[in-house]
Each structure stands twice: as structure tokens, then as C-alpha cells.
């Protein structure tokens, strides 16, 4: 048969389906996963697609998480250089969909067994009544702790912020080590303390900015006090590397983190014996307990010249078999309910801990602006932690930024 739609395109991906329905051409995939721990697993899984579709070449490209969102928007806007498939973080998905940069997947081969997806994971792939992505991984946050240090200090895992302070004081006294590394250059690490005070960034139902209400101010005070009381250490920059190094080297007894940190954490000398890594719910504040929902979806670029192969690739990469491999090798959480039942997944302690955590993770509004709430917040969060501003002023300034971004919100 003849090759349909074999026209060349801006990123060299050509192809379509021959009369026989056999897929062909290339699929360029921009993956944002962490280099050195996740990327090699995802690259292998992606390239194995060719075993099922010999005439399709997968062009795996790793793009750093911090660059990929704007890089994709620039490429899609200019119509040059965009990939066929992108790993779109949960907040990027409504942003890209709203801009028209994603192919709607309803009725395509990309969507298989949609009922098998966790509802929280599926929620971030829907926009204006259409499906613009397939959920790849879902995540939330917990306390990672070093069991050896806890034993040496004779302490239990803290359930509240107050216990976090007393446990940290005891660890310092008994072992000389600091209790918690609190990441200070990424506002995602502020959310569980905000939820603990009964606060949130915004209330999308009532279109109200809430970061600057009493709960928001209280949460800013809480994190500032964790550092002032020496229960926690933090950094204004390079937080990911400093957090991982401090925890992996046993300089701190705890960090708050998510499943994406597990593979890298296991490379630390303290966790050569994986059993030394403990995991527990984030501490409760004065008004409650909650951890944020994060994760990543797989989306198809609306301008792809190889939509059929891209749909098939997205379906394959989010299939139960592939999700089970990513879970077993990287402790990442499947977005398909059926995968949690597989033995190699169910026996992973990280997965069995995080599953109930993601099921009750605090959902975020999947509006185009939801991702834009972090940049203005992190500026104030970092300044509060380093006493460059007060909790009151930090919360107020963040609120003002939000009201500029969300025009008609209260
Ligand atoms: C500021 C950013 O605010 C938001 O991001 C939130 C995010 O919405 C939250 O959900 C949370 O994300 C979790 C995530 O869920 C969790 O899975 C994990 O991800 C792992 C992967 O698991 C791991 O595989 C690997 O990839 O590595 C990933 C990262 O570790 O951890 C994430 C938290 O880190 O927190 C994010 C905030 O960080 C915006 O969305 C933008 O990202 C924005 N950045 C833009 C800024 C533009 C210029 O201003 C610049 O030009 C633009 O290019 C930048 O994009």
C-alpha cells in the first residue's frame, strides 16, 4: 500500500499508516524525567516501542523539567521544533490545551481502558470537556526518614509540626544531626504546611485568592519557625541537590519529598540498605493534614505530522505493562488501578505507602494559570525562610501577584 501523509515536517517526524494499517515514521518524545535515575529507564521503555512497531523510530529527547514547559510553548508557537509527544506536568496540561497546542485524544488509539485510570490522575488530563493527555505518573509527598538516626536518637516519626520540632531537638541533642531538610527554592515544599493550617493557594470554586488569608500567614510563620528553631535547614538556591545530598549523606534525619526522589535516594550511602529508608505522612498542622497532588501526563502535539504513531506511542507508554516496569524499577506510582494489583508493584513498600496518600492528596484546580501560581509564591517563600520579608508581607505580596494573574478573582 502507499504511505499516507508522508509529508516531511519541522522536526523530521514523518509517517502515517500504510494501507495495511502498519505504523511508520518517527516519533520524537520530550521526556523531562530526572537524568541519572529515571531517564535511562524511560529511554529504554520508549525505544522498546519499536519491538511492537518495527517501522516506527522513537527519537528520545531528555529536556530538563525547568526548561521543557516554555521550550515546548515557544516551539509550538513558532511551528518549528516541537516534539510529537511531550511529558506534560499536570499543571502544564491545561496551559498547553488552552493554547491549542495539544491534539484532543478522544476517539483516538491513545485512550485505552480509561476507567482504569485513578480519577485524580485523569482529572488533570481533561480540559473544556475534552481529553488532552494520558496520565503517566501520579505523585504526592511524604516524610522520608533515616531509620538508623531515629533509632540512635530514640524517637518516633513526627505526626505534627510540633512533634517535628521536638523530635528534631532530640535528634540534635543525641546525634548532633539536624532533623529536617526543608527545600526553600521550590514552593511545592510549602504546600503541605499550607494545607496543614487549613489554607490553600486559591479557591477555584469561588474564584477567590486565599494564599494571603490567616491560614496562609500562619503557614508562612510555621515554616519560618522550623528554620529559626533549628529543626530544619534550608537553602535559597540549588535546593534539590542540597536536599538529596544532605539526606543521602545522613547529615539530616528527614526530608519531605515524593516518589520521584526514591531512585536517587537509594544511591546514597545511608540507603545502600534500602530498609533504612522510612516513609510517613507529612506532619499535620494546627488545622489538618494534607499533601499536594503532582505528576505527569503524556500529550500529543497538535501539529505532529505523525499523529497515528504518536497516539499509539502514548497508549503504549501508559499501558499497564509499561507502568508496572516504571513502578518496579523506579518506585513511581502507576495511574492505572489495575497495576497496583500486580505482585512486583504491590510488594514495593514505597508504592504501598504512597497509594493511599495520593488517593487523599489535596487536588489542585486544573486551570491554565494553576502552574503560574508557583513562581510568584516561591519568591516570597524563600524570602520568608531567610528573613528577607515577614510572613505577613510574604503572604500579602503573593496574594497581590495572584490577583494580577487571575483578573476577576476576589
Ligand atoms: C516554577 C514552576 O511552577 C510550576 O511547577 C510546579 C508543578 O506544577 C507542581 O505540580 C510541582 O511539580 C512537582 C511534580 O508534580 C513532581 O512530579 C516532581 O517533578 C519531578 C519529576 O517527577 C521528575 O521526573 C523530574 O522531571 O523532576 C521533576 C522536578 O523535580 O516535583 C515537582 C516539584 O519540583 O511543583 C512545581 C514547582 O516546582 C509550573 O507548573 C512550572 O513547572 C513552573 N516552572 C516554569 C518556570 C518558568 C520560568 O519561570 C520556566 O520558563 C518554565 O519552563 C518552567 O516550567
- Provide the residue-averaged pLDDT: 95
Distance between the termini: 60 Å
Give Rg in angstroms: 22 Å
State the assembly state of the protein chains: single chain
How would you portray this structure in words?
With 410 residues, this protein is of the alpha/beta class. The chain contains 17 helices and 14 strands. It has helices at 39-47, 49-52, 65-78, 92-98, 119-123, 147-153, 161-175, 191-196, 214-228, 239-248, 262-265, 307-317, 320-330, 343-346, 349-359, 374-385, 391-405; strands spanning 25-31, 56-62, 85-89, 126-127, 130-131, 134-139, 142-146, 178-181, 202-203, 208-209, 232-233, 252-257, 277-280, 294-300. The protein has a five-stranded mixed β-sheet, sandwiched between helices. A five-stranded mixed β-sheet has the order 11-8-12-7-13. A hairpin with a 2-residue loop joins strand 4 (126-127) and strand 5. Helix 6 (147-153) crosses helix 7 (161-175), helix 9 packs across helix 17 (391-405) and helix 16 (374-385) runs antiparallel to helix 17 (391-405). The longest helix is centred in the middle third of the chain and has 15 residues, at 161-175. The radius of gyration is 22 Å and the shape is globular. Ligand TXT is lined by residues 32-34, 38, 65-67, 69-70, 89-92, 139, 186, 188, 258, 260, 294-296, 371, 374-375.
